[in-house]
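Subject: Protein entry, chain in single-letter code together with its fold tokens

Area: Proteins and the way their chains fold up in space.

Attached in line: The record itself begins immediately under this heading.
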Amino acid sequence: MIKLNVGACRKVSDNHYGSKGGNVNIEVEVDSSLVGDSAKLQAHIRHLFELARRSLTEELQANNEPACVDETHHHRDSATLNGNGAGNAVTVTPVRYATEKQIICIQGLARKHGVPVPELLKQAGVRVFNDLSVRQASQMIESLKGGSAN
């Protein structure tokens, strides 16, 4: 038996000043007789690479936009919102938080336009930049590019 390991990785922009990426690796064992037939072995390897690339593309194109119960109040843990873990628990899909690049961009634009950071955070309904969602950060960047904080 021969062990083959092929993989694909890719990082793509999410159009909100962030990105998402993925890795797909496939490991299989094939009959050692393929060593004697390089064309068949190469065709098998190509097929595995194509399968990995197609799977990766499908995953990255899937709509994984975050959702939350309340856009102004996010929960970073997976605890239920009713506090006791039972009964009428609300399921909350995790929020994708602002990227480091988004935060740096916001801070630079705020400095450039003389907008006080505490005011930006207050308008967004958060205490610190790390509580911003990717979408909120994107909207804040667009607003600051226009020269205002609103």
